[in-house]
Design goal:
Number of helices: 6
Shape: globular
Oligomer: single chain
Distance between the termini: 51 Å
Order of helices and strands: EEHEEHEEEHEEHHEH
Number of strands: 10
Radius of gyration: 20 Å
Length: 246
Amino acid sequence: MACSVPFSNKNLDISFFVFKPTIVIIDDLVHGLKQFSLSMESLGCVQSSIFRSIHGNMIIWYGAWQKRSSKEKEQLTSTLKSTLTNNISSMAVLVEHSFLEAYGGESRDGSSTAKISTGDIVSLNSAVTTTNDLNDLCYAVLAILRSRFAKMEGITAGLCLKGQSKARVVCIHVWKSLHFCYSWILNSDHRNWMMPYLERFSIDMKYDIFRVVYVSGDKVVDLNYISPHQMLENGKESRQGQVMQN
């Protein structure tokens, strides 16, 4: 299965919820977010995915929704945060959340969508700017993507999104493998060719690399899931019981 995100779709709202885990075994958090994804389908979530940071300590939950009014999005956000508080708060801190919309992109297969599948590598650039510069920054980021895309070996798609309530631009690159992603990062003089596009903006940029660990449609373990931590605890109790019997 794959999530297909159109490059320009004014009928689709995209939400990102960013988490910082507070537990050692991140698989427990990922499993909790998978169950969260399933429960969001009843609220009209069209598709969802989970990105796990490869080098850092971040998890991103992505959800796509049919277009809603600002008031409806406020109500939806309140519901999402309440559900997450009940199910996820013991495992992670919600760092930030926002709604965005796609406004452009490129793909290797010639389609007008970015396809994201479990196991893909995703690199993500996020830039926050002032409201007055948002539209110009959107054009600059899209121009950067289009000027370099054909030269980026191993990339399958690039997607540009802009914030709906925050002056933010996000660019996502989808890679066939981590090797291709690293090769592009290490062998390109990004500063020289990016700065002519960005130097006039006052921006706060963030960058990270993620592995896609779930997309809607993947099989999810049932609710009787036993976490690795529980397995370790059960094994410890079993060994202690055997010692006492002996």
